[in-house]
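Q: What residues go here?
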């Protein structure tokens, strides 16, 4: 990180290329379960401004809320997982998914009023509570990636009674180190003065993906990275700058994590720049209720780079709540996910099917 920081300004292009707007289709499930899925876009007004929520599935089912990483939205952060038929059937059989976008990160978003206040991480967590109130949801399952994982973990610390479980991918929980803070400040300045330029996109892609999928002299750039590059072109740079400022000003929630008693499942790629941060977070959570899955040969965004590696741990995790993936797809009744339905023995590590130590999920990579 320090090496890249020293060379960032040498890489800034003298002439910024015109940004290309690319229309991306809204996320949709595999064809065989299309008839089960309803997708609705909502704009929810809160004290902290408007927030876009894509509601995906049967609203009579329990709620799973998602929150993406910096400069991403539900399409660019979770479509890999939801395009995996087994994972899609597991999640949609049991949940209605509420994809919450950071302010100004939704598809087709306009630039947020520059005179509007810059929200803090705490403001974003409180905003989630207002979104849940709008939809009449009292307690939810949460899934977030990196910056989004921090917002959801902070939400869980502040509103413990409203979180049934946490599924966190390459999460953050400490205040930024001096190196990360300075690195983010450089990216913040580039976003503010130059927009979503080539250097910013390179920094973000390094944040999301492993070297293997980003390409090299011997390997082509993967399709998922190319799709992510196109989606970054659609982001309004000042909206991304606002979210980055919130994340760069975050505070340490390590001690608050100790008080959580909801079950937690952490995924992290072993090539993620936030690998050590995820290990630290896992060490702070109650080991009786949490498990860590390390995915080999993977960057931060496991949901896109290796979503298949998440399936088995997710199945075991959700079995602890009495949830399961149907052997064949059919319209299902409301899933039994509520505190009164969860027996204490299901909170044991054995019920999760996961050991209380990092699980190395080895994935073969074709060269």
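A:
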């Amino acid at each position: 990180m320090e090496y890249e920081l020293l060379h960032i300004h040498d890489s800034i292009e003298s002439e910024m290329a015109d940004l290309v707007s690319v229309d991306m289709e809204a996320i949709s499930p595999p064809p065989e379960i299309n008839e089960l899925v309803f997708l609705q876009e909502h704009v929810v007004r809160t004290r902290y401004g408007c927030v876009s929520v894509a509601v995906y599935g049967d609203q009579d089912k329990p709620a799973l809320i998602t929150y993406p990483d910096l400069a991403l939205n539900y399409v660019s952060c979770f479509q890999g997982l939801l395009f995996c038929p087994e994972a899609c059937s597991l999640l949609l059989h049991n949940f209605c998914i509420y994809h919450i976008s950071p302010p100004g990160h939704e598809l087709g978003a306009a630039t947020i009023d520059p005179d509007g206040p810059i929200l803090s991480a705490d403001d974003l967590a409180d905003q989630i509570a207002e979104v849940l109130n709008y939809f009449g949801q009292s307690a939810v399952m949460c899934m977030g990636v990196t910056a989004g994982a921090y917002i959801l973990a902070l939400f869980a610390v502040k509103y413990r009674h409203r979180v049934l479980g946490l599924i966190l991918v390459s999460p953050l929980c400490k205040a930024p180190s001096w190196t990360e803070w300075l690195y983010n400040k450089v990216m913040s300045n580039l976003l503010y003065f130059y927009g979503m330029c080539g250097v910013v996109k390179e920094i973000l892609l390094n944040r999301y993906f492993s070297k293997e999928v980003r390409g090299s002299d011997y390997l082509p750039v993967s399709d998922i990275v190319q799709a992510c590059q196109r989606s970054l072109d659609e982001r309004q740079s000042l909206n991304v700058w606002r979210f980055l400022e919130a994340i760069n000003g975050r505070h340490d929630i390590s001690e608050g994590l100790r008080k959580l008693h909801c079950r937690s499942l952490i995924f992290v790629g072993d090539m993620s720049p936030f690998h050590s941060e995820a290990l630290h977070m896992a060490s702070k959570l109650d080991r009786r209720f949490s498990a860590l899955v390390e995915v080999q040969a993977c960057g931060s965004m496991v949901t896109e780079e290796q979503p298949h590696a998440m399936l088995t741990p997710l199945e075991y995790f959700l079995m602890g709540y009495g949830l399961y993936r149907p052997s064949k797809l059919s319209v299902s009744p409301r899933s039994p996910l509520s505190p009164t339905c969860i027996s204490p023995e299901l909170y044991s590590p054995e019920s999760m099917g996961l050991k209380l130590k990092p699980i190395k999920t080895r994935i073969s990579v074709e060269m």
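A: Context that may help when evaluating the design: Residues 58 and 361 are 32 Å apart (CA to CA). The longest helix spans residues 178-194.
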